[in-house]
Amino acid sequence: MFRLTCVLTLAVLASGCETMSTKVDLEPVQPVRYAQAAPVLGAAPSGSLFQAANYRPAFEDPRARMPGDTLTVQITERLNASQTSSASIDRSGEISGGVSAFPFLKTPLLDKLNIGAQSDNSFSGDGKNQNNNNFSGSITTTVQEVLPNGHLVVVGEKQIGVNQNVDVLRFSGTVDPKQIRAGNTVASTQMANVRVESRGRGAQGEAMAIGWLARFFLSVIPF
Q: Looking at the domain assignment, is residue 93 inside a domain?
């Protein structure tokens, strides 16, 4: 009876450790502000068919220019970094001394008074660090702000959730309108202050995480 009670207790405790359902939405690290196009103040009617406030060139490319416009960013980020260092130290020394003559001491005793010391020190170390990151993709962003010099601050987010797994891609940066290509696209390598976030949550992320007990032992073991 005691064994059965223990088994039932362990079963109840194990059920409490069951993985909870994953929240699909991932909150951004910083709140994202979605820009809205500023209302255009209508000019006083002049009786002319031409209105400067609503003028758009007939042969102009549909490129982003105002808050609220969309812009497609082709993300192509590649970062390769390597560092190598080496050090070598070698030092040696030797000293010796003796007594050749001393009153009231015989020669055999003087031979035993010879003193000598020798030391050798050496050290060598090598270190190497290498980091390779490649990221490619595309995301459609929204113009959040137009700077005084005409540059556009764009922000975009893409979130895909399948069952209990979710992947989020967030992008922000500043672009010069001159770099916008035909089709209203721009390469991320031609933008400034680029920030790319790719995060995921779900069973795959939990499988790659270190358990709390393993993290505890890693923090207390001194070697």
A: no
